[in-house]
TrEMBL record, chain A:
<feature type="transmembrane region" description="Helical">
    <location>
        <begin position="240"/>
        <end position="258"/>
    </location>
</feature>
<dbReference type="Pfam" id="PF00528">
    <property type="entry name" value="BPD_transp_1"/>
</dbReference>
<keyword id="KW-1133">Transmembrane helix</keyword>
<dbReference type="InterPro" id="IPR000515">
    <property type="entry name" value="MetI-like"/>
</dbReference>
<feature type="domain" description="ABC transmembrane type-1">
    <location>
        <begin position="69"/>
        <end position="258"/>
    </location>
</feature>
<keyword id="KW-0812">Transmembrane</keyword>
<dbReference type="InterPro" id="IPR035906">
    <property type="entry name" value="MetI-like_sf"/>
</dbReference>
<keyword id="KW-0813">Transport</keyword>
<feature type="transmembrane region" description="Helical">
    <location>
        <begin position="68"/>
        <end position="92"/>
    </location>
</feature>
<dbReference type="GO" id="GO:0055085">
    <property type="term" value="P:transmembrane transport"/>
</dbReference>
<keyword id="KW-0472">Membrane</keyword>
<comment type="similarity">
    <text>Belongs to the binding-protein-dependent transport system permease family.</text>
</comment>
<dbReference type="GO" id="GO:0005886">
    <property type="term" value="C:plasma membrane"/>
</dbReference>
<feature type="transmembrane region" description="Helical">
    <location>
        <begin position="104"/>
        <end position="122"/>
    </location>
</feature>
<feature type="transmembrane region" description="Helical">
    <location>
        <begin position="9"/>
        <end position="29"/>
    </location>
</feature>
<feature type="transmembrane region" description="Helical">
    <location>
        <begin position="134"/>
        <end position="154"/>
    </location>
</feature>
<keyword id="KW-1003">Cell membrane</keyword>
């Protein structure tokens, strides 16, 4: 009896918490289907009286969201692929190879993780202006093609593959390159997927850097475009909620499908700085 | 083993070749800028187009020392950190403990709690902006049930920071819950059985078994949460439409850096603010590490 009561309380608290987490999402979608008049009504209506998609269409047309979407997709995809490739190679060297300067280099790179990225924005902006890359894909992509965080996480996963496997492959005449891509990478598939997913999500949602290095509609990513749209559109909340849904939906869908990798990535990789 | 042998030149060349692609990017966009922004904080006259430095000195730091706006940026950042981190940890630990006790629907709940983590902060800030709306917002509607008069969350300087703190806590819970769940899972179940045999009730088991056993994770989460909170920017920018809140009520160090750099082109001062941010984070992290040596059980 006592157990049933406490179990009920646990579930009750969890449901209340879950509703709090979901409420903003629900409110966003619900508002996006309301008329401007209904949205401002007090008391508010929970569900729109009539489901109408005019806000979605007018929001989509009011700003070049198709361009933003394409930019976000290209930038997230390319940076993720780049980061994975550079991380796989470097993590292999740090986990399995033996070379002069390895420890020193690793320590220096580890120390850079302590520095807040916001501090690096000014010199990076200067660098990119000098090579005339501001407001291009180059500025959005190149600085993010490698991340020591990814190297660090992947190194742990590579290190857990027994060294014997490496020697056996060498005895069989396999080159390092072949061993890396044919044995090590398939072995670490789930951590690579997890790192990739976290990077896609991070890149899709990143704001400050794209805000600084883009200055035309043509180059804006979704979050920056949405921000610009919100200051242009003023207070049309139903349209703004429809536009926010465009931005949020792709990552939510990706997460719902691949959520076990995201969970594994966070629990296994420790922490993302 | 191979890793203990002295490396040959051939191995060294090969190792560096594998590291090279990552290293080029990291060197240009992380290592160089660290040195460069440190140097830039001492540039008092600087032409960014030609990258020419005409004068050096401590004037940028002096400017920060005397600028009341920077003082309030530091104060607001500290208030934000203190407002967010403890609540974030208490709430996420509570939810994680609750989640850890159930089997049915545990995965479902975990998915929901984690949802804000994958969400664009800009987009969800738009939603919160709407929830915080004075006249038609959901929050004031709820508060009206308990007789609280409408609060102008985003335009009243008193409420700007609390509004920001609520949003930040809501957004960060899922990630910390996930980490706490990992730690809770790793606690040896026999410890609980032993404690129960000794007559400990649920609260005592939590206090004397759970809390010490997960303290390394709590430390990790605390450090990470503090660092993250020190760098708050995106949610301010979107919540207050590109401003730092009404009358700069939500001005933080990173927002100050952004304003000096991007809006006013005062690169030296912005870089100096970045250096101050770095040392603030460093000092707090060192304090936390020192504290953890005494209280974390490894």
């Amino acid at each position: 009896m006592k157990k049933t009561i406490s179990r009920t309380i646990v579930y009750l608290l969890l449901v209340i918490g879950a509703l709090t987490m979901l409420l903003p999402f629900f409110w966003m979608v619900s508002t996006s289907f309301k008329t401007g008049f209904e949205a401002l009504q007090t008391p508010p209506t929970w569900l729109p009286k009539k489901l109408q998609i005019t806000n979605w269409i007018s929001a989509w047309k009011a700003a070049p969201f198709a361009t933003y979407l394409l930019n976000s997709a290209v930038v997230s995809f390319v940076t993720t692929i780049g980061q994975i490739i550079t991380a796989i190679m470097a993590a292999f060297a740090f986990a399995k190879m033996n070379f002069f300067g390895k420890k020193t280099l690793f320590t220096i790179l580890l120390a850079t993780m302590m520095v807040p990225g916001e501090m690096l924005i000014i010199p990076n902006f200067v660098t990119l202006s000098q090579i005339h890359l501001v407001n291009t894909y180059g500025a959005l992509i190149i600085p993010w093609l490698a991340s020591f965080f990814a190297v660090f996480t992947l190194r742990q996963s590579f290190a857990s593959v027994p060294d014997q496997l490496y020697y056996a492959a060498k005895l069989d005449g396999a080159s390092d390159w072949k061993f890396l891509w044919q044995i090590l990478v398939p072995n670490a598939k789930s951590s690579i997927t997890a790192i990739g997913l976290l990077q896609i999500i991070g890149s899709w949602n990143s704001f400050m850097w794209p805000l600084i290095v883009t200055n035309t509609d043509k180059m804006r990513t979704l979050p920056v475009g949405l921000q610009a749209f919100s200051s242009d559109s003023g207070v049309n909340y139903p349209e703004l909620m429809a536009a926010s849904t465009f931005v949020i939906l792709p990552m939510v869908i990706l997460y719902l499908f691949l959520n076990k990798y995201v969970v594994a990535g966070i629990s296994g990789g420790g922490i993302k700085g | 083993m191979m890793n203990n042998q002295k490396p040959t030149w051939k191995q060294t060349l090969k190792g560096w070749l594998y590291v090279l692609p990552m290293l080029i990017i990291v060197a240009i966009f992380s290592l160089y800028p660290i040195v460069s922004s440190l140097a830039m904080s001492f540039y008092t006259q600087y032409n960014f187009f030609t990258n020419q430095v005409m004068a050096l000195g401590f004037d940028n730091f002096k400017y920060l020392w005397e600028d009341p706006l920077f003082h309030s940026a530091v104060a607001n950042t500290l208030i934000f950190v203190v407002g967010v981190v403890p609540l974030e940890i208490i709430i996420s630990l509570t939810v994680a403990v609750l989640l850890n006790q159930i089997k049915v629907l545990a995965g479902f709940f975990r998915t929901i709690y984690f949802l804000p983590f994958v969400t664009s902060i800009v987009a969800i800030s738009m939603v919160w902006k709407w929830i915080y709306n004075k006249d038609a917002g959901l929050l004031n509607y709820f508060l009206s049930f308990v007789g609280i008069h409408p609060i102008d969350w985003l335009n009243d300087p008193t409420w700007a920071l609390p509004a920001l703190i609520i949003l930040a806590i809501w957004k960060s819970l899922g990630f910390n819950i996930m980490l706490f769940l990992v730690a809770l899972n790793n606690v040896d179940k026999r410890l609980y059985s032993a404690a129960t045999l000794d007559g400990a009730n649920a609260w005592n088991r939590f206090l004397h078994v759970t809390v010490p056993m997960i303290s390394p994770m709590t430390f990790l989460i605390a450090v990470n949460a503090v660092i993250g909170s020190f760098k708050v920017f995106d949610e301010i920018f979107s919540l207050f439409g590109g401003q730092a809140g009404p009358g700069n009520a939500a001005m933080t160090v990173v927002f100050y850096l952004y304003r000096m750099f991007y809006e006013q082109n005062k690169y030296g001062i912005a870089a100096a603010a970045g250096v101050v941010l770095f040392f603030m984070i460093l000092i707090v992290t060192l304090l936390q590490t020192w504290f953890s040596k005494k209280h974390v059980h490894y």
